[in-house]
Design a protein that fits this description.
68% of the residues lie in helices and 0% in strands. The protein has helices at residues 2-9, 20-35, 44-68, 92-108, 111-140, 142-150. It is elongated and about 50 Å long.
């Protein structure tokens, strides 16, 4: 699923999960924004500057998380990664992609992109992340259970 887009882009991204829902929300939101602009605010300059910061933060978090998992296959991990950003968040990549998407919405000053970001985030929170947590619990048992008690889902 998430690895499909990464493989299509190139083999060097094969271990980089790119949540297609965030990509789809950006594409659909961008199209809607182009067809019918709905700004978040009339004072867009400040929002755009904040968007740059949020986007940069998301990119840095994703880079840090990808560096932390560089020695495992992320779709079938042989060990649980608990260092780097994973010491602070069980889902730093989802958090990073959400921040990137939110930053783009702010940069574009677009309600459409903001709505898409919120929808994608809600989907991951309610559907994808619980599935991944169940798989990690089944694979790592008590080790994952202890990690889950210690480290929050997001921050």
């Amino acid at each position: 699923m998430k690895r499909t887009l990464a493989r299509a882009i190139g083999p060097h991204l094969a271990n980089t999960p790119i949540p297609e829902t965030f990509v789809a929300s950006l594409v659909l939101g961008g199209l809607l924004h182009a067809l019918a602009r709905r700004p978040i605010t009339r004072q867009g300059q400040t929002l755009r500057l904040q968007g740059i910061g949020v986007l940069a933060l998301g990119l840095l978090l994703n880079a840090w998380a990808m560096f932390a998992v560089r020695q495992i296959r992320i779709d079938q991990p042989e060990r649980l990664i608990t260092s780097g950003p994973y010491a602070h968040s069980r889902n730093p990549m989802y958090l990073g992609w959400g921040l990137c998407s939110l930053g783009v919405a702010a940069l574009a000053n677009s309600c459409w992109l903001l709505a898409g970001t919120l929808a994608a985030g809600l989907y991951h929170h309610l559907i994808e992340i619980p599935k991944e947590e169940a798989a990690l619990q089944a694979r790592f048992g008590e080790i994952y259970h202890a990690y889950r008690r210690k480290v929050p889902r997001y921050l």
